[in-house]
Design brief:
By secondary structure, this protein is α+β, with helices and mostly antiparallel strands. It is built from 4 helices and 4 strands; from the N terminus they run H-H-E-E-H-E-E-H.
C-alpha cells in the first residue's frame, strides 16, 4: 500500500485549505504564462503554448541553434530556459520557457528579453 507519509500528504493536499493553496499556485503559473506570451507577441516571436500548460515554446531568433540561444540568454541576460534540442532533433531551433517561477522573476525576465531582443 501507500506509505503513511504519502497518505497524509494526499489528505492535506485534498483538504479545502490544500485545494485553495493549489488554486493560488495555478493562478500564478497562468499569470506568468500570460506575461510571457504577451511579451512574445509584442516582440513578434512565433510561439505556442501557455494557455493550457505553463510551458511556452518559442522560435529562436535569426535561425539560431537552441543551445546557442540558451547561452546568449544565460550569459547576456540571466534568463534560463530549456533548449529545444534537448527534446530531440525536431526541437532544434526552438526554446522552452516555463511559468513555474515567481511573478516578480517572470516580469523581470520578460523585461530582460525585451531589452535583449532589441540588441539581437
Amino acid at each position: 500500500g501507500v506509505s503513511y507519509p504519502v497518505q497524509r500528504a494526499a489528505e492535506a493536499a485534498l483538504s479545502p485549505e490544500g485545494m485553495a493553496q493549489c488554486r493560488e499556485h495555478l493562478d500564478v503559473y497562468r499569470t506568468n504564462a500570460k506575461i510571457m506570451t504577451e511579451t512574445l507577441k509584442e516582440l513578434g516571436i512565433w510561439h505556442i503554448g501557455g494557455e493550457n500548460s505553463p510551458y511556452i515554446w518559442m522560435q529562436c531568433p535569426k535561425g539560431m541553434k537552441s543551445w546557442d540561444f540558451f547561452d546568449l540568454l544565460l550569459t547576456k541576460f540571466a534568463i534560463v530556459g530549456t533548449p529545444g534540442s534537448g527534446f530531440g532533433t525536431m526541437g532544434e531551433g526552438y526554446f522552452r520557457l516555463t511559468g513555474f517561477g515567481s511573478r516578480e522573476d517572470t516580469v523581470e525576465g520578460m523585461k530582460r528579453l525585451k531589452e535583449g531582443f532589441a540588441r539581437v
